[in-house]
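SEQUENCE, STRUCTURE TOKENS:
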Amino acid sequence: MPVTLRQLSYFKALAEQRNFRRAAETCHVSQPALSVQIRELEAALNGPLVERHARDVVLTPFGREVLDSAERVLSEIAGLEQAARRRAGLAGRLSLGVIPTIAPYFLPEALAALRAEDISLDVEVTEAKTERLLAQLASGALDAALVALPIEDEGIEVLPLFEDRFLLAGSAARLDQIARVSSPEGLAESQLLLLEDGHCLTDQALAVCGRGRGNARINMGATSLSTLSRLVAAGFGLTLMPELAALTELRASPGMRLRRFARPEPSRLVALARRASSHQEGWFTELADILQTVGDDLVARVRQSDEIADTQ
């Protein structure tokens, strides 16, 4: 009995969900249909893949070996399908991932630019933290992802797009208290508010400020830049605000003020990522060119704005 891609896909879902019902829901099939396919896969491979319990399933040692092979096969198939869609360039369906500190500020203009390039292009967007986006790139669930460097994954290829500088955000009173601070390192005695762990922006902010996670004057609990903006506007502390988000959050939180650091200004590098094993058709470069133009225009507007103060 031959092994099928459907069986491998169902088995991968079962391994991830560890429950037949949830796996069936993920695969959009009935639970009996999924169970039949798993049993047929076990028969084809001549060995049990899972231990069945009342509310849980556990992979057998053989099942773990099969899962590794299944993931490789499914990833390669996804790559072939991606290559077929992309033969004509940036057309058809594009699955694009974006990290949360970029998505709400960048996507409206980026999607408009992509639609202007090809009105028939169907863009599916996934907003998630970097770790999840890289996993989805590796599995073939995403064609490309907008991330912030550095990315330390040999299986991922990145193309830098534009620089997104960090601004100092706080209430007028808070910024007056540190009027002479011109660099992130000078914030050592200030209350710093950051996003919850797992956001790459938090790691970048800690790095440029020279602070560690255990510092008593660091609060990492916000789930979005919008939340951070409202907290600092109310005087609860300071934060680092990317230029991409600056004007949107400034207008949403009137009590917040933004100030530039002295040169060289701290920044992050926004990049477009894809699987390194993807075929080298021109769609990736074409997509990068469009997104780079949008990013350059957005940060240029911020740098020309008189709503952001220079270092005193």
